[in-house]
Amino acid sequence: MSGLALSARFGTPDQIETLVSIETVVAEQMDLHVQKRRLWFPNDLMPADANLDAAADAELARVRDAARGLPDTVRVAVALNLLTEEGLPHFHRLIAVHLGNSAPWSSWNNLWTAEEDRHGCALRDYVRDARLFDMGELEKLQYRYIEAGFNPDWEQDPYRLLAYTSLQEKATQISHANTGRLCATVEPMAQKVLAHLAGDESRHYQFYRAVFGAILERDPNRALQSLLKVTLNFAMPGHAIAGYDEMSEVVRRARIFCARQYQEIVEELLDFWKIGLMSNLSAAGREAQDKLMKVPSRLARMADFQDAKSAARDFQFGFIYGRAVRL
Ligand SMILES: [Fe+2]
Ligand SMILES: [Fe+2]
Fold first, then answer.
1. 0.90 exceeded by pTM
2. DSSP per residue over 93-145, as a string?
3. N or C end: fewer C-beta atoms under 10 angstroms in the chain?
4. Ligand 1: distance of its center to the CA of 42 in Å?
5. Is a pLDDT exceeding 80 seen at residue 124?
6. Backbone angles phi, psi at 316, to 5 degrees
7. Residue 282 Cα, ligand 2 centroid: separation in angstroms?
8. Complete domains list, the chain, with CATH
9. Rounded to the nearest whole angstrom, what is the distance from the C-alpha of residue 61 to the centroid of ligand 2?
10. What is the pLDDT of residues 139-183, one digit of tens each?
11. Which ligand is nearest to the CA of 121?
12. Does 7 have pLDDT greater than 70?
C-alpha cells in the first residue's frame, strides 16, 4: 500500500493493515447483506405519485385522521427518530474519514448511505402527510443539528467507529421498533414505516458486528480497548440537537429506549463476540476485557436507579406547539 493511501484515512499503520486484511470479510458481508435485504422505497409506503386515485386520497385522509390520536410521548419519539436519521451526512463523512475512500469500504459506505437515506425520507414523508408536528419547528431543529456537526471523540480510531456503529444500529432498531409498537393500535401506517426502518437497522447491525468481530480476531488487544471506550461513553448521534436531553428523557420514561435496553445490547454483543472467553491477551487487553465484562451489571444498577428515582415532570417541545408532556 502506498504512503498516500495510508495517510488518506484515520488509524495507525497497524490498524490500517488490519483493516486491509479484513477487506474480503467486508466484501463477503456486503454480499450477504444484499442477499438478505428486500429493497423498498418511501413511495411504497406513502405514495405521492401524480396519478394517484381516489382510494389513495381516502387512505391518506384516514392516516391523517387516525394520527390525531397519537399521544405526544409517541410524537416526541418519532421526532427524535427522524432527527437521528436526518443526521446521515455526519455519518457518511465519519465512515469515509475513518475507513477510507476505496473499495470495499467506500462501496459499503455508499450502499449503507443509500439505504439510510430512505429512512429519513420515509419518516419525513409520514410525519408530513400525517401532520404530526409544527413542521417549521422540527425543520429548524434538523437544520441546527446538521449545521452543528457531529464529532464524537474517537481520536481518529477506526475501530471505535465500527464498535460504535455496532451498538448504534441495534439501539436505533430498538427505538424504531418500540416507537412503532406504541403507534400500532392508533395509526398502523406509522408502525409499518418504522418497522421497515427497524428491519434495515437490524441487517446493518449484523454487518457491523461481523466486521468488528473480524477485527477482534486479528487485533484483539487494541480492539478490546477501543470497544471499552465506546461502550462506556455511548451516546446516540442526536446529542448535539437542542432539547435532545429532554427528548431522550421522554423516550426513556416511555420505555422506548433506556439504560435497560442498552444493557441488553451490550450483553448481546459481548456474548456474540465471546469477549469473556478471549485468551492470550496482553495486560492492557485483559484489563479492557475485565472492564467490559463488568459493564452490564453497571448498566443494570443505573437502570434500577433511574427506575426508582423518576418523579413525574412536565416536558415542553416547540415542535408539538409547546404542549406539556407529563411523564
Ligand atoms: Fe436508519
Ligand atoms: Fe442503519
1. yes
2. HHHHHHH-SSTTHHHHHHHHHHHHHHHHHHHHHHHHHHT-S-HHHHHHHHHHH
3. N
4. 13
5. yes
6. -135, 140
7. 33
8. 10-47+55-220+234-258 (1.10.620.20)
9. 30
10. 999 999 999 998 898 999 999 999 999 999 999 999 999 999 999
11. 1
12. no
